[in-house]
Design brief:
Elements (H helix, E strand, L loop, with lengths): L8 H9 L5 E5 L5 H14 L8 E5 L2 H21 L3 H12 L5 E4 H11 L1 H4 L6 E2 L2 H22 L2 H8 L8 H9 L17 H14 L13 H15 L5 H11 L14 H51 L2 E2 L1 H14 L1 H10 L2 E4 L7 H11 L18 E5 L13 H13 L3 E5 L1 E6 H12 L17 E4 L24 H18 L2 E3 L7 E3 L15 H10 L12 H4 L3
Parallel strand pairs: 1-7, 1-8, 2-3, 2-6, 4-5, 6-7, 9-10
Antiparallel strand pairs: 11-12
Helix pairs in contact: 1-2, 2-3, 3-4, 5-14, 7-13, 9-13, 10-11, 10-13, 14-16, 19-20
Length: 573
């Protein structure tokens, strides 16, 4: 075993020694995040600081929860065998026997257990069921259809308002789904005056008529340029529709918004004049028409939001009537329960005094609230951003560079805010920079790539740069990092994805036939032969995945596809 001193050894010791200290751990890829979390749990129970029942470990996925529990059991068994202190050894044995008393699971399952234990205070039936996936999508669609029908039959106020602003309710289904995902987000409902169309209509028509005089009557080759197309559209709409109707006029402006009105001078009678017309149109659009269109949308926004809020409320009431909660309900009800009931919050703080959170970079604001309510000192403080976690109550691990769930509102802002709260309460930020997973050659290449993307300082919307330190120093004879250059054909055209897939598959086949070996990730001298399952191909577009799988299959290399865009690719082996 390699006994070299790690660059972050002091931070790793602090995790298992300073058990009454709150830590915010930023751990890079391959740095042993799970190992550190498991090590802290074992240190808590071995020292007698906490029992297994008092430890709560929150993971991001069910799979991660299963893996964490398995790792914890293995490491507990190992710790029992290595313990020299009799009292500590007995505590470890007890912890191993009581492993099932330690909550290890997702934030949603954790919230579900809290709500089932205190349903009266949460205003819920304790026998609620949790819905997800297809069942949730079907119920969501059912609620939407019922809501729209109810509006048509009993209360047309919303529908009439939508009609006046040129909106068909069927256009709003995806917006309704988004509202269901983020019911806690505060919406802007302030009324905005309806914009008045004045001289803009006349200016647009005057411009179009002037431009038409410089255009041929028949389409030039190969086609009308973009400005000519816009001019033709304006005049055509003026002939067919009543542009004095404001709704029709705003619909035309929306049609003109994209693409930009580029000109090709040779397709006009007078090229320089066409260039001047282009500048006139751009000025008219930016200074007059675009602001008017923005004002129209601002006027429509609160009307749309009121309609969508009513639809979201209808769906929420349907879920409650059928005693069904989705994942967002679990979070919202749990956060509200802990926020508004000091006695309940104090009870669960006593019940779960040691909270450990893995993959914190994927935590959204509601999850962060729940975490702070469970660890905050003041059980009466409702503003979670003002809470200070109790000493030793909170241990979070994450890597902001690995955050991929921003569409779920897991962003750097929440990450930074919680870090600041932990530090303000006397906690510390630890950085684990040692990489146990990759060879030094690959780590150095990644460091060089990241250095040009991330800044050293902590910007408000992006993770700061932190280089990794490699443990695995032994480099294979043919190198740990290899580059396959894209060779352009004589015509200067890059090879197709199919040809590139063939080249990559041939390279993999060659490595397998040559008997390339891999050294152990722990830095020891142990080696093993390269196998197909050791190789991972990542690509930018799903559409190319099947080509690579087919190229591998043609050479007899077994493969599986994850994340394919159709059934055939997803099942290919």
């Amino acid at each position: 075993m390699n006994k070299r001193v790690l660059a972050d050894s002091a931070q790793r010791r602090a995790i298992i020694e300073n058990l009454e200290q709150n830590y915010f751990v930023e751990a890079g890829a391959g740095s042993g995040k799970t190992h550190s979390l498991v090590g802290r749990i074992i240190a808590l129970v071995e020292s007698g600081t906490a029992t297994m029942e008092e430890v709560t470990a929150i993971t991001f996925t069910r799979k991660a929860a299963g893996e964490l529990k398995e790792r914890l059991q293995i490491e507990l068994e190992k710790a029992v065998g290595e313990a020299t202190d009799e009292a500590g050894k007995n505590r470890l044995k007890t912890a191993l026997e009581q492993l099932d008393r330690c909550f290890i699971g997702t934030i949603h399952s954790f919230c579900s257990s809290i709500l089932r234990e205190r349903p009266v205070e949460a205003g819920l039936d304790p026998n609620f069921t949790t819905i997800e996936g297809l069942e949730e999508r079907l119920l969501e669609r059912q609620a939407w259809d019922s809501f729209i029908l109810d509006q048509y039959l009993h209360n047309r106020t919303f529908l009439d308002e939508l009609s006046e602003i040129d909106i068909d309710p069927r256009q709003l289904f995806e917006a309704y789904r988004t509202m269901n995902l983020y019911p806690e987000v505060e919406k802007v409902l302030a009324a905005v005056p309806r914009p008045v169309v004045g001289q803009q209509r006349r200016e647009l028509l005057d411009f179009a008529r002037q431009a038409k005089q410089n255009m041929p009557d028949y389409e030039p080759k190969p086609e009308w340029d973009r400005l000519q197309k816009k001019v033709r559209k304006i005049l055509s709409w003026n002939r067919i529709f009543d542009l004095k109707n404001d709704v029709i006029f705003f619909r035309l402006l929306a049609e003109l918004e994209t693409p930009k009105a580029d000109v090709t001078q040779k397709r006009w009678f007078n090229g320089p004049l066409a260039k001047d017309l282009h500048q006139q149109y751009e000025q008219l659009w930016e200074n007059s028409l675009k602001p008017l269109l923005v004002s129209w949308r601002e006027y429509r926004y609160p009307i749309l939001i009121r309609f969508l809020e009513a639809a979201e409320r209808y769906y929420r009431e349907l879920r409650l009537a059928e005693n069904k909660l989705n994942y967002q309900d679990l979070l919202m009800h749990c956060a509200e329960l802990l926020r508004d009931n000091a006695e309940v919050r104090a009870y669960f703080q006593r019940r779960y005094p040691r909270l450990l959170v893995d993959e914190f970079q994927d935590t959204d604001p509601i999850q962060a609230q729940i975490m702070m309510y469970l660890s905050g000192e003041d059980c009466k403080e409702k503003d979670w951003t003002r809470l200070k976690p109790r000493p030793g109550s909170l241990f979070v691990v994450g890597d902001p560079k690995q955050s991929i769930y921003r569409f779920r509102r897991a962003d750097i802002d929440t990450f930074q805010r919680v870090r600041e709260q932990i530090v303000a309460a006397g906690g510390e930020v630890l950085t684990l920079s040692t990489n146990f997973r990759s060879h030094v050659e690959l780590v150095e290449w990644v460091n060089e790539a990241f250095e040009s993307i991330f800044q050293e300082s902590e910007p408000p919307y992006q993770a700061g740069y932190q280089p990794m330190q490699a443990v695995v120093q032994t480099i294979p004879a043919d190198g740990a990092l290899q580059v396959l250059p894209v060779v352009e054909k004589d015509s200067g055209i890059k090879p197709s994805a199919k040809e590139d897939a063939r080249r990559v598959a041939a390279w993999i086949k060659n490595m397998l036939e040559q008997g390339v070996t891999l050294s152990a990730a722990d830095g020891s001298t142990a080696v093993k032969a390269l196998q197909p399952q050791d190789i991972l191909l990542l690509m930018q577009y799903k559409k190319d995945m099947l080509l690579y799988a087919q190229a591998l299959q043609a050479l007899g290399i077994p493969s599986t596809i994850s994340g394919g865009s159709d059934l055939s690719s997803s099942l290919l082996v």
